[in-house]
Amino acid sequence: MTTQKTFAPGLEGVIAAETNVSFLDVEAEEIVIRGYDLIELANKKQYLDVAYLLIHGDLPSNEEKKALQKELQGKYHLPSYVSHIFNSLPKQTNMMDALRTGISVLAHEDETLEDHSETAIKQKAYDLLAKIPTIIADSYHIVNGNEPIKPDASLSYSANFLYMMTGNVPTDLEEEIFDQLLTAYIEHEMPNSTFTARVISSTLSDIYGALTGAVASLKGTLHGGANEAVMYMLLEAKTPENFEKLIRAKLANKEKIMGFGHRVYMKKMDPRALLMKEALKRLVEVKGNEQLLTMCELGEDMMRNEKGLYPNLDYYAAPVYYLLGVPIELYTPVFFSSRAAGLSAHILEQHSNNRIFRPRVNYLGKRGLHPTTLS
């Protein structure tokens, strides 16, 4: 007789790994990144500092950070065959699908593809950190019939990323807030995409395969795609009055309001959302569009009062992306680009003390059936 094990739908509450990478301490309202508070890191450090921290375990010195910036700048450009592939994609291609394709094809020219040593994985991680922003920007421009914008090595990592997408060199404020946005998304313990990357890595597959699988996971609107849905909802409403009507109609129809609720942050607001709310206020002061901030704050109050739900990062990140000029189709790809550093850290950790993931099931189907003899 088979003994049934406890079933947790969606693996909710199940401990799937022991990690030194990150932890969500909901009671302390802290996102721990290798011992540091993520929000403090976002306010005091830059994205590349935190990426280095995740991949190496310690914050970089000024010399180490400069060396990393220089290394990445030398790797921004894509092989010509990647552009040829983007040129052959249909015009309706989803940008997450283009990103998935771009990462996957890069594996073909890696002569150390099967080298799973720590040194080799770190090198591949930095190669991908350099090229993923270019994949995102180039695929968007090419699929839309435009020439890609060449990387500008005179700009910082984050400023160059924003420049390649928008064609405009960002102001100091825009660069600072975009860098902060990337840092906010960089790592978040064990969401679906991270779990996917670790499961793939546990088979001793390569980092390209693990990140390709993570892209497919993050594409879903219940994970990464929520930021785009939030912005479309704000643009549909246009005014606070219409936004209130829209939310009330969705609630009456029992529709999910994107940007609210989180599997972990159930009783408190996502601290990353608070960070982006302040960033939005700073952008509005310079760029205007006070109505956008008013709509967001109205929605926040309504959902807290009506459903007891709080904004997650996607809710306030969406209007920040918008005021920075990032095309809506690229919100989720940018999310992934940021998260690539955290994913790489998890892949490194998985390989360092590996055990292949192989869960079991509670079988609910029939037993004892027998096929008939062929006539």
The residue-averaged pLDDT reads 94
Major sheet size, sense and barrel closure: 3 strands, antiparallel
Domain module count:
2
Low-confidence stretches are: none
Provide the gyration radius in Å: 22 Å
Describe this structure in words.
The chain is mostly helical and 375 residues long. It has 2 domains: 22-171 and 186-219 and 338-352, Citrate Synthase, domain 1, CATH 1.10.580.10; 226-324, Cytochrome p450-Terp, domain 2, CATH 1.10.230. It has 16 helices and 3 strands. The chain has helices at residues 38-44, 47-56, 62-73, 80-87, 95-106, 118-143, 157-166, 172-185, 192-201, 207-218, 226-237, 240-252, 271-287, 290-307, 313-324, 331-352, and strands at 22-25, 30-33, 36-37. The protein has a 3-stranded antiparallel sheet with strand order 1-2-3. α8 (172-185) crosses α16 (331-352) and α13 (271-287) packs parallel to α15 (313-324). The two termini are 35 Å apart.
Q: Would you kindly provide a brief summary of this structure?
A:
It is built from 16 helices and three strands. With 375 residues, it is mainly alpha-helical.
Task: Summarize the topology.
Elements lengths: L21 E4 L4 E4 L2 E2 H7 L2 H10 L5 H12 L6 H8 L7 H12 L11 H26 L13 H10 L5 H14 L6 H10 L5 H12 L7 H12 L2 H13 L18 H17 L2 H18 L5 H12 L6 H22 L23
Antiparallel strand pairs: 1-2, 2-3
Helix pairs in contact: 1-8, 2-16, 3-6, 4-6, 5-6, 5-10, 6-7, 6-16, 8-13, 8-15, 8-16, 9-10, 9-16, 10-16, 11-12, 11-15, 12-14, 13-15
